[in-house]
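PAP-specific phosphatase, mitochondrial (Solanum pennellii), 408 aa
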Amino acid sequence: MDLLRYSASRYPAAHLQLPFRTPLRRRFVAVRSSLSLPFAEQKAKYYSELEAAVDVVERACRLCVDVKKSLFSSDGRILEKNDQTPVTIADFGVQALVSLEMNKLFPSIPLVAEEDSAFLRSNNLVGSVVDVVKDKATLGDEVTEDNILKAIDRGGKDAYVFAPEPATYWILDPIDGTRGFVKGSEALYVVGLALVVEGKIVLGVMGCPNWHEDCSDNSIIGFQENQSSRSGIIMVSHVGCGTWTKRLSDILSNESPHTWTRCSVDSCQMVQGARVTIPESQTWKSLPLSGLFEAKTDSENIGEGNILLLSACCGSLCKYLMVASGRASVYIQGKKATSIIKVWDHAVGIICVHEAGGKVTDWEGSSLDFAADQTERRLIFPSGGVLVTNGSLHSKIIGMISSNSSVL
């Protein structure tokens, strides 16, 4: 790809929260992706950005696979943050790797991500992150403890202060579904990276290393015994170019050919009998549709007035992946008074679902506002919650939610 066509002025940088600004210098580093994209460069305005994102997510998945192999044999690899959310060296490693690589290629584009280095610093774990990042970075000699800490904090809270106007920035979820990652099971987890340009999500990449290809409607996603089908996938999306997947196992093993498959949402037209997934932290009875439909987990005994509830031990991005790939018709998440909704749990999923023919809004039918958090771009405030569908069911479900508003 021709990186010379980029300039530091193409994407106005957000304001660094520092006493002064230093001139940005462009680094020219070739992307080493092992696969081409499924559409022509001429059709995709952000082709090179997507190519770079695919490359770094691919390597981030390699990092996750490597860490997971040693997760239960090395002390100190399973950690807990102050909020009791499980987090591993892989989370910090992925954020450091993505931050390092994208900052080389696009130094004017800020990064909004989940982690910061405070936990690593206080627990003397920086060296462990250096070890897992070094062989995945393009320039291993730059992977020092100091650079790792700076890279992680580049995406952390308070790293940038945005203006209220539309902005351009990367959004990263290092590992969505960390609870599954550390269980020792094959629960799904996702590395997700999206690019927002002037307030619009224009591309996204999701890597799911242990996604399995074959599952029946009544299966518990992420807990199949047949490991031969657990190939993993990488999903890519570009505005106007569709959503596509490729087997991650082929990419990681450098096998060929690598065949892209275009994704489409399912064709379900009736809410009754639809395949629905919800957050692990919520119950069907806590959601407004429970007043109209009973949820069943057995596809052979749905019956009238029921929906099929797909159990899924995974984060929200995996559920977006399920809708975009046609495995689920609906993902519905309620906004709880005791929690906040983070942008990295939704951004990359939104474009993947949209480009696959689906729709994402809040419970009132409004688009999610990624600029509502005007200074940090880290939070969204959907009314009621988030609704993700195949598009055909969207207005019907919005109407049902409205008519059952007393449940909210």
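The radius of gyration is 21 Å. Confidence is low (pLDDT under 50) at residues 1-34, 215-228. ok done for today
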